[in-house]
Amino acid sequence: MKQIAGIAELRDQVEELRRNGRRIGVVPTMGALHEGHLSLVRIARDRSDVVIMTIFVNPTQFAPTEDFASYPRDLQRDADLARSAGADILFVPSDKEVYPQPYQTYVNVEQLTTVLEGKSRPTHFRGVTTVVAKLLNMTMPHIAVFGQKDAQQAAVIRQMAKDLNFPVEIIVGPIVREADGLAMSSRNAYLSGEERAQSPVLSRSIQRAEVLIRGGERESSVIIGDMKTMISAQSLASIDYISVAEYATLRELARLAPGLTVLVSLAVRFGKTRLIDNTIVKVP
Amino acid sequence: MKQIAGIAELRDQVEELRRNGRRIGVVPTMGALHEGHLSLVRIARDRSDVVIMTIFVNPTQFAPTEDFASYPRDLQRDADLARSAGADILFVPSDKEVYPQPYQTYVNVEQLTTVLEGKSRPTHFRGVTTVVAKLLNMTMPHIAVFGQKDAQQAAVIRQMAKDLNFPVEIIVGPIVREADGLAMSSRNAYLSGEERAQSPVLSRSIQRAEVLIRGGERESSVIIGDMKTMISAQSLASIDYISVAEYATLRELARLAPGLTVLVSLAVRFGKTRLIDNTIVKVP
Lengths: 284, 284
Fold this sequence. Notes:
Oligomer: homodimer
Distance between the termini of chain A: 46 Å
Largest interface: A-B, 32 and 32 residues
CATH topology of the largest domain in chain A: Rossmann fold
Order of helices and strands of chain A: EHEHEHEHEHHEHEHHHEEE
Largest sheet of chain A: 6 strands, parallel
Helix content of chain A: 25-40%
CATH class of the largest domain in chain A: Alpha Beta
Strand order of the largest sheet of chain A: 1-4-3-2-6-7
Shape of chain A: globular
Number of strands of chain A: 10
């Protein structure tokens, strides 16, 4: 595995790979790698000749009140994991390399970013789409792989790639979970022992929503009510949102129509740690 | 010359060209071609193997009050001119092909777009940068050529390409003028006989500014005052703005420092027709 920090060196590499007819897959990450990220590298390997993993803790997607400074960073550990999962190139640029001053260009997806995570984190997706547009231009990939855990992020990036005609296929890999169901996330490392012990309620509540929908429940208020009751029973959990939305538009639904694909998603705080989880269900 | 209307067909062509190691140059236009556009095709020919001209009257860069509906369109004439100048591919997509609904992604350059044309046309550059980002992704060029007549547009596109790491070199071709000095523009066709007769005052005022700056004048107010006097002497001219700005930032200057590169620019209406012109001068 080759480690690269400069955009010019990366560009030389990808242009040579393309000239040689190699198919490039990219897995953009913020590091603090876990099995979820590594599963995306394996998906990229299956569908391309050369896998580039990028590690960049992107300042523009954090609000001033968020955890940019404290976000976990351990490059040596990440490099070992990326290599073991089969990455060929690890691209780790500096903030200055990615955002040379005076920086002033932003990519914004309008409707999809106003709901769910976007409502709680109003400047977040503008940072995500901007850095992903940049990383796509830097790595010139044929495919780019993102995780389903960040369901809205995946939808927003897919919309951006389509709207701006990026010559890339966006692939979304399934959520990888701990044995007790907790969706893997770099932020799980922030949890205290007691918070960690309570956190599997999130995936249990998501499973409960799946059971209800597959069993014929059509009222979102009933589904959300059940999830709320489950989560609120945990003393350390504080609900940010629980949503049942049309997957295509991310618009909240009051009633579920048969045949519709819906996204059930939530954000819940345990102390200072904000966790998200979701599932996509087709209404029977 | 091959004429293409579909993005998928264009993509197949450019991917094959790239696989074959051909250098691609693109000249994005809104059609209504004149010698200015054709000079850009010749510049692209000199610096690439295959020249793609795009013709698309981009709705998102026109305000509702502007001339989108009446903008001159004559594809047969344009195709003949593009062929004669040496374009290899003419890409002419429909509105629906470029902006399939629901469309919702925009690219915005922040500081450079708030002044000059951006002050008079607040949504204009967002439309320009969005469509140029899309056209760059559709045509995957090594170089893209724009005209200096739209000086701020060229600066904004250059900033966008740099900020978003587009793998393309932006080239800016010089202004092409009519024999009497009027900068070539598709909108010159709107001018009445009398308006056309008065319009060369714009380039004369620009030349006057060059003479003043090269002669040692350092006060922007003196330069702008002289230009204003010249232009106001024409009965049909109505000044939108005259500006002396630092070229790098487009910030207005009160005094010109030696060694600085400045952009002298103006927008003037003749009846309903809004014309622009400019020059770049290094302060002695």
